[in-house]
Predict the 3D structure of the following.
Amino acid sequence: MVTLIDNSRLTLRHPEKANQPDSIVLRKPDWIRVKAPWSPVYKETQQIVREHGLVTVCEEAGCPNIGECWSKKHATMMIMGDICTRACAFCNVRTGMPGPLDPNEPENVALAVEKLGLQHVVITSVDRDDLADGGAQHFADVILAIRERNPKTTIEILTPDFLRKEGALEIVVAAKPDVFNHNLETVPSKYLKVRPGARYFHSIRLLQRVKELDPTMFTKSGIMVGLGEERNEVLQLMDDLRSAAVDFLTIGQYLQPTKKHTPLIRFVTLNEFKSYAAVATAKGFLLVSSSSLTRSSHHAGKDFAALKAARMAKLGR
């Protein structure tokens, strides 16, 4: 998920007028404004990240929650470099041909997790279509390294779709992360423009396959809203995720990172987010996070505890 360069306003264009000079300036609603990222603990987190040469999605994607999270020593590690082989229209991560994998990265991530004292860590990555397994083994190596150095830390992964990478998903699931997250990002009708390198039903099938491989593993997915999607499309997406037995759904506001990225159509209201949460809960998700500032890894540790509690309650234990 991505945020604005300007904290107060952005240029809004209708999709059919995206290449025209005329634009409407839309002020950012009060409910989505955040404080500047600064505190002594924030600086300490930043120093640990720099010391081990790590990349975080917090910085690369310009997450609006970075100040809050880093001030609590919570950072989402982005492995396999900072250059992505895809060019998703919503994302601020650089596109190009990535370099070779760093063999020391798994241990460096594990050391950073130890120094930060993380009880729950989220590991994500760029897309690595250039690799035969899409980076699946590297994900597994990172999970193993964290487990060896931090045996009490629970691990959540946010993976690419491993499109056309046979056997890749099985490698990652065999490493036994506690939560497997793969974001749909948007509704099917927006894929061609927003997520052109991906396939909606492949992503649904990926999440379904995780449950087939390990029914005990928590699965999670998220979307952005404000891209021009219709409400009924979001509700159908919920049904598609439930058909894949996904446990946890996140819904957050899309924020346009630059004028070159896919246009923001509108700010979704607080009441709409609450309504989405109510519907998703009724459809059977164990947990739902739906708000303007909801992001995949925001409050991930607290959410993992809530997921476990919800499962126990459902089982009547």
